[in-house]
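Fill-in record for FAD-dependent oxidoreductase.
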Amino acid sequence: MTDERIHKSLWTTSAPGRSFGVLPGDMTVDVVVIGGGIAGLTTAWLLKRAGKRVAVVEMNRLLTGQTGQTTAHLTELLDTPYSTLLSDFGEKGARMAAASSRASIEQIASIIEELGIDCGFQRVPLFRYAETESELRELREEVEAAKEVGLLARFVEDVPLPYPVKGALRLEDQALFHPRQYLLALAERLVGDGCHIFEETRAVEIRDGVPCRVVTDHGTIIAEDVVEATTTPLNRVFLHTKLYPYRTYAVAAPLERPLEAGLYYDSQDPYHYIRTQRIDGVDHLIVGGEDHKVGSEEDTDKHFQALEAYTQRRFPVGPISHRWSGQVIEPADGLAYIGRNSASRHTWVATGFSGTGMTWGTLAGMILTDLILGRQNPYAALYDATRVKVKAGAKDFIQENADVAFRFVADRLSRPDARKLSEVAPGEGKILEVDGQKVAVYRETGGACHAVSPVCTHLGCHVHWNNAERSWDCPCHGARYSPTGKVLNGPAVKDLASRRLAPEATEAQPSDGDER
């Protein structure tokens, strides 16, 4: 298997899609949805079903962003423990969080049944298990908290894993599916009756008003409402202080012996998440984990290596067939931000989905559709995007934003990675100092070099090289760029500025397939 294929997710390689084309020019619709992942497509579909004309604009190809990098767990068990939610949001708030997650799973099930989508949807149990005595004590507390908020949870000692554990929280009636098959089917049915999907169309500016205007690199769309269903919204400075970007990793391999279908989570820190998926008649195991702050580590390949070793040591699998990474946006207080954006009248946001993007992405579509249509939604107040919970997540809020301030200054004062172009190996990126200015340099395997400014176009922090994904990553708010400076992940909307190098540095011809 080639390196190019192994760095694609299991979903991307098993469900090819069709091209929807770019925005052909200026147009007018009722609602513009920015972002073609699960939140964007769900919102667009529910709005179309309610009679709205909707245009979805996606910066890249449909479902190649974070939805394409998911491990697709449909669960009521959130990354934030229910014991924490009970403390921070009270019993009513924690119960609403649980109920909203259940409503999201049932919304997906309803759409699948309504449209007859073949995506392997399956109801399965979830196991959150402990392997040490300290993990077991915390787990028992979470079992009681889960029961208190109304989940069908219980403590069990038997877990269908090929290694012993001390016990587990078992949660009934969770689900798994093939997210790309589900969403491609949704996209096919979305187009028509005044609704559109435009790929490779980058939104660069939102002008809130009556009407709103979304300026893209292919034209301007006028609409009554705008939904930002991206990983992180465009240039919303205050909201970004409540969002913390992390990288997460996943590997997949064919199973050599059966494993009971289910969702499995260990209690390590960071934890591992495990599930099965049948692809073309072959059962695969998917294992994710090894989370870390975006841009905080250059040797990201070690996380893939650790995940592969964990998988092969514990499970009966063949050779690793796929490995990929994704962007996880952690919210300050443990719940997603869904609703009207600060200081806006008709601009709506959906972000901070943590590790439960499939359920919260679907929930975002449900909440935002109701709000745009002027209907009451029982969960809207809980997920209000403008909320500030002083108590909840205060420690993380201070620490994360202090880290942003530190990185902004420290990276400007730090020494460059290298002094000479000759120190940049093929396939590698380094920060050099050229004529007294720092330059981010990437060398292709064929020898040609590309130089860009290391200054992130979002808020000016300096990017760091990511060796496993061959990207420039910003440690402040999670923007990511290709080796040649093209935007891969927001909140940035502008590419890194090009920088000139001496002619001899660019003499070699580029080789095919270098840039990912």
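KEY FINDING: The chain has ten helices and 26 strands.
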